[in-house]
Amino acid sequence: MANRTVKDAHSIKGTNPQYLVEKIIRTRIYECKYWKEECFALTAELMVDKAMDLKFVGGVFGGNIKPTPFLCLVLKMLQIQPEKDIVVEFIRNETFKYVRALGALYMRLTGTALDCYKYLEPLYYDYRKIKRQNRSGEFELVHMDEFIDELLHEERVCDIILPRIQKRLILEENNQIEARVSAVEEDLEEMETSDEEEAMEDKDQSADKRKNYKDLDRPDRGASPKYRQSPSPSRERNRKRSRSRDREKREQRHRDDDERRKKRKHRHEHKEKDKSRDSDRHRRHHGNDRHHHKRNLGPSKDEINIEEANELRAKLGLAPLKP
User: Fold this and answer.
1) Distance between CA atoms of residues 95 and 128, nearest Å
2) CB–CB of 183/125 below 8 Å?
3) Is the CB of residue 47 less than 8 Å from the CB of residue 89?
4) Alpha-carbon gap, residue 37 to 152, rounded angstroms
5) Is 37 helix (H, G, I), strand (E, B) or coil?
6) Which helix or strand (DSSP H or E) is residue 143 part of?
């Protein structure tokens, strides 16, 4: 008789609240020592003291399927069905983390979808460590926010099949609940604002550098009003990248032009040296040829005529002509 549900209890999900726990596990709970000694004649007021004594969470463990005290108290709460205010106080309790975990699991089993999202989602900000006993009887460390996430998204927690609830997206589309803003999104927004500030600082520095390399002969062209009014961070980053690429291309083009001018100048100097060397060689060669030609030439025509005239005069007995 001690295992019956109270008379004025309301049916949950169309059935007896204790039937939310599977029959074989429920039978093991009824037979365990903790249920017979600690949970007998337990009321909602005395439930608080038993919950404060919890040291870990878990379902069943061992080869013979032994239930944990946490699972026994969950079934006892389903049996006596405490008021909703008591369960909410369990969830809002910040001193005893296992009391909070007990209230969260009971709210997930018996509450509506709106109640589950309303009371369990704030527990995502609870990062305390809790001990959990697995099926093999070993203990493992988990965090409270992980446990709450399992309650909202997993099908089985602590060896209890959880009732199905509506997706949060459907409730948001029906305007039954507001969109949730997580702490991660707030951190991302802070990071984006810091990135925007750094981008603005980099933009100012790049603008100062561009002024040093700016051609003063060209007229200044201001930005269009569209970009001057509300520049977005992505557009500024793209403009900064394109400007840096253009600046690198200009610098590379200047370097290539300098190298080409140096090569052209070197080739011109080399050609001038070759021309001067060829001209010197040509002059020396022609000078030697003229000297050698003069030296190899025989007597000139005047000399030949004088000699013939002297031979003729010698035959005639006249005096020779002087050259």
Assistant:
1) 11
2) yes
3) no
4) 32
5) helix
6) strand 139-143
Distance CA 122, CA 152 (A): 12
pLDDT for residue 196: 76
Three-class SS of 203-214: HHHHHHHHHHCC
- DSSP state, residue 4: S
Instruction: Return d(Cα 159, Cα 61) in angstroms, integer.
Output: 10
Phi and psi torsions of 150, nearest 5°: -65, -40
Half-sphere exposure of 193 (CA within 13 A, CB side): 5
Predicted TM-score (pTM) of the model is 0.58
Residue with tokens 């000399």: 303
- Give SS3 for 54: coil
CB atoms within 10 A of CB 115: 16
Q: Are 71 and 29 in contact (CB under 8 A)?
A: yes
* Amino acid letter for position 290: R
Place of tokens 């069905």: 81
Distance CA 310, CA 323 (A): 10
Q: CB of 26 within 8 A of CB of 18?
A: yes
Please choose, from the candidates 181, 179, 161, the residue with its C-alpha nearest in 3D space to the C-alpha of residue 170: 179
Neighbours of 4 (CB within 10 A): 10
Residue in 57, 73, 66 with CA at minimum distance from that of residue 27:
66
- Per-position DSSP letters for 264-301, written without gaps between them: HHHHHHHHHHHHHHHHHHHHHHHHHHHHHHHHH----H
Residue 173 exposure: Cα atoms within 13 Å on the Cβ side: 5
Strand order in the sheet with 57-58: 57-58, 129-133, 139-143
Alpha-carbon torsion (18, 19, 22, 27), positive or negative: positive
**CB neighbourhood size of 22 (10 A):** 13
CA diameter of the chain: 187
Model confidence pLDDT, tens digit, residues 81-135: 898 999 999 999 999 999 999 999 999 999 999 999 999 999 999 999 999 999 9
Here the tokens at position 96 are: 């005893």
